[in-house]
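The methods section describes the discrete structure representation at length, but only in general terms. An entry of this sort, consisting of the sequence and the corresponding backbone structure tokens, reads as follows:
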Amino acid sequence: MYNLSSHFLPIEDDLLAESWQTSQIGHCIAKHTSTDFPEISNAKIVFFSVPEYEGTDNNGDNHSAIREEFYSLHFDMLPPLADLGTLQLMPTKKESFKQIEKICACLLENGIIPLIIGGGQDISYAIYKAYASIGKIITFTSVDNAFDLGTEEDKIHSHSYLSKMIAYQPNHLFNYCNIGYQSYFESPAAIEMLNKIHFDTFRLGYVKANLFEVEPLMRNTDFLSFDLSAITSSYASANVHASPNGFDGAESCSIMRYAGLSDKVTACGIFEYHRELDLGNQTAKLMAQMFWYFLDGFKQRKNELNPNLNECTKYTVSFDDGVNEVVFYKSNKTGRWWIGVPFSTSEKEKKDNYFVACSYRDYEQSNQGEPPERWIKTYQKLN
């Protein structure tokens, strides 16, 4: 495995000097100290902070408050987890991003989930390139109050990284999904453009009213990037773009738990933390609890990345034209739903199915004569 120890600074001595109860994360987690680097081959998840803020309006090189709050939380039967400490940045942003790419690629290739404290959200671009470097085509999901497209002329920044991701060649972005955008922060042209290329965007009001619909979105996600600006300022004030509207603390934790539950999610980060704006450490406390909920979900994963057709009930919905139909599969073990989206393989145009996680609501909608939007968009991408 790629040698990671030289890229990280150890955890602060003040934090290591604390004593924790046996059920607290600080007692159970493997830590990077001044004398020891954790054996990550034994870990399923690694936790580290990236204080890279050059491409953002937020600022803060110290994430110790988040780590302290995280360590103080109790957890029953913690998954194998290691804290690598703080990434030691390179002299330039380009070099730091290349370093992040190499580290994340190493972790992903070895089946280890990077759980990241940011830093600017444009770090997501480096993590995307890590997937591309190992040849993996992904669905990228961002919880954010805006899309961060920027303009073609913009350098990479927290408000423009998505356009760089879309333009990157060779393309490894199968789908982009935004959860929680607020219409007054986005131009109608940007919303229309993402819809035309069959990406998924969900307004804040819709998600708050239908939070259970986040579960299938996470089952289709490889990498989740959570921008603190998506959370209302009364719950997460430590962000210069904090807004009166957004998700509350419980909703943010639920989203992270759905991400942890998903067998497909292999990287996750929370970005745009501004230490100096964190009065009473309230944002640090919420971030720590969000990471806790990710671990709580991960602990309950079902090893059900795709439906086991031998353990599913199949439902076929035919439409009035007598030609088109949508096939659903419901797991008899977990009650989860999938749609089979047909596509042609190179073998004499033989049809195969691409499985998309969905909800019972999609099945109900189909029975009313309307194919689910996620089926339509996936079909258009594949055919």
In short: The longest helix spans residues 282-299. Residues 309-382 form one domain.
